[in-house]
Amino acid sequence: MFDLVGFGEATLRLRAERGRQLGDTDSFAAGVGGPERNALVAASGLGADAVWLSRLPDSPLGDRVVADLRRHGVRTGVSWADADARLATAFVEAGPEPRGRTIVRDADDAAFEGIHAENLPLNAVGNAERFHVAGATVARSEQTAAATESLLAAAVEGDTTTAFDLRYRERDWPPAAARETCESLFPAVDVLFVSSTAAESVLGEEGDPIEIAHALRTKHDLETVVLLRTDGGALAVHGDEVHETDAVRGESIDGAGARDAFVGAFHAKRTADAAATGADAHRNDGAGEPPAGDGSPPGVGDALAWGAAAAALARTLTGESVTVSRAAVERIVAEQ
Prior knowledge:
Elements: E1 2-7, E2 11-16, E3 28-33, H1 35-45, E4 50-57, H2 60-71, E5 75-81, E6 89-94, E7 101-106, H3 122-126, E8 128-134, H4 135-139, H5 142-157, E9 161-165, H6 175-185, E10 191-195, H7 196-201, H8 209-220, E11 224-228, E12 234-238, E13 241-245, H9 258-283, H10 300-315, H11 326-335
Parallel strand pairs: 1-4, 1-8, 2-6, 4-5, 8-9, 9-10, 10-11
Antiparallel strand pairs: 2-3, 6-7, 11-12, 12-13
Helix pairs in contact: 1-9, 9-10, 10-11
């Protein structure tokens, strides 16, 4: 069984030289990004057995994406498009305030838009502890939305815990369309990641963070709602329990990868706890003392702490695609 399977698009990111603008840089540093891809890389670095599903052009650029993921220990299940198909591209200029970050995207008609779930290894989803997808993926095209529905259905059939990161961006779709589509998916979702801003603008929830999280969980029958704060902290409602973690204080070079690192670390900790609980149950099967509690994976609060630590580490690194070490995350958590 896999720990974590993610579904989403890869983007070739070309970053201008540090201290230069897109209009005058002499060279670009090339990398690969994408919200699910980034979360899987973070989770893999923390020990999770992760698999990424997508559609890529059968070209050197598609091969680069696969090689990049494998270099980070992430397995791939790819539907290959023709060699002349496009890979989404983004040109990035990252500067300190007040200049900030500028991104010029070139993603229309990319290979991923034409994906069909039947061309992906659906058995991987049904044989995973967790399945993860983000809102930007659903918004890409009718085919990506339909594929997401099919993959969530396969996860539900396989008793896989499903996670959805709303991750709303106005350029992807208007709030009303986002709300209609996301709420249609929620019956198949167990864990929702969402910011307070998106909870209000897209889902219409207002109030203090605990009220928002409780309202979302009960209204949509979710197992867990993780309300992400812009500073790197978070609050989670899991059943009737409320957990909260503050942001880890430290210097910030670039916050672009913080959210995905948080999500990946949360998943990594939850799958690690699930594996430990399963091992305890197996060792005590028929003899000795049973594991404490009802056998469900413990530690939503611990998973939040891992997420906050990973987000803080990501802020010390450049770019949205970052890897963090388990030793560093555990050290930060122990010091808090």
